[in-house]
């Protein structure tokens, strides 16, 4: 029987994690999403414990209160408490060189911003959704392309943003989102670093020796 390439189960889990972060950074959660999040199960790992904390926070959260918290944290009047854009975190200003680089790399991958999305492409929700597509195979980046996109456009700042979200959020729900995001970025950075070591010429020589 035919069909597309098989996607590794770990990559599917990674894609789900990125998609979840994109949802939570893109808009305030609906009651339906909160109900789904309340069913998350954790394990003994730090990320598993963060998932459990997020589930607990979702189970007790008020959607209207989270809508106000989301606005204050990530939208604001004039300026939000946090600014989830690569350009701002890397240069201190919006619409700077990091945005240009992201647009160039997305164009090379054949990725276009959806017509209904008005935020620039360096918004962290858009970058997480792009990584979800790369991890799931929906976008074909070729060998090493996913690692390059992460290391260029998320690793330099996304973990710092999520750490700031942990500290800034008054709502337990968004503190939990910050913890999940920070831990996941750390895991991704470590995994991609090991990939680089595994394919480096020195690593190949050591393996052959």
Give a quick summary of the entry:
This protein is mainly α and 209 residues long.
Account of the 3D structure:
- The protein has a domain at 9-24 and 82-208: TorD-like.
- It has helices at residues 9-26, 31-37, 46-60, 63-75, 86-91, 97-108, 124-136, 145-153, 158-168, 172-199, 201-208.
- It has eleven helices and no strands.
Q: At the third CATH level, what is the topology name of the domain at 9-24 and 82-208?
A: TorD-like
The total count of helices amounts to: 11
Find the count of extended strands (DSSP E, 2+ residues). Answer: 0
Contiguous low-pLDDT stretches (5 residues minimum) are 200-209
The helix/strand series, from N terminus to C terminus, equals HHHHHHHHHHH
Shape designation = globular
Fourth CATH level, the homologous superfamily of the domain at 9-24 and 82-208: TorD-like
- Could you tell me how far the N terminus lies from the C terminus, measured between alpha carbons in angstroms? 41 Å
Q: What's the architecture of the domain at 9-24 and 82-208 in CATH terms?
A: Orthogonal Bundle
What portion of residues is helical? 55-70%
Give the integer mean of the pLDDT values. Answer: 89
Mind describing the biggest β-sheet? none
Q: Structural class, from secondary structure content?
A: mainly alpha
Task: Round the Cα radius of gyration to an integer and report it.
Answer: 18 Å
């Amino acid at each position: 029987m035919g069909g597309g390439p098989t996607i590794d189960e770990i990559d599917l889990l990674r894609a789900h994690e990125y998609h979840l972060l994109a949802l939570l950074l893109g808009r305030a959660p609906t009651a339906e999403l909160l109900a789904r999040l309340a069913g998350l199960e954790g394990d003994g790992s730090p990320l598993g414990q963060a998932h459990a904390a997020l589930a607990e926070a979702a189970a007790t959260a008020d959607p209207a209160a989270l809508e106000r918290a989301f606005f204050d944290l990530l939208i604001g009047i004039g300026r939000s408490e946090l600014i989830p854009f690569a350009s701002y975190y890397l240069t201190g200003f919006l619409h700077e060189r990091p945005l240009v680089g992201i647009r160039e790399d997305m164009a090379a991958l054949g990725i276009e911003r959806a017509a209904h999305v008005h935020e620039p492409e360096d918004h962290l929700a858009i970058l997480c959704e792009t990584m979800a597509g790369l991890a799931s195979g929906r976008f074909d980046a070729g060998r090493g392309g996913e690692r390059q996109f992460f290391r260029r456009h998320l690793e330099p700042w996304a973990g710092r943003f999520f750490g700031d979200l942990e500290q800034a959020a008054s709502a337990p729900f968004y503190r939990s989102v910050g913890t999940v995001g920070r831990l996941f970025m750390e895991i991704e950075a470590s995994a991609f670093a090991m990939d680089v070591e595994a394919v480096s010429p020195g690593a190949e020589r050591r393996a052959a020796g």
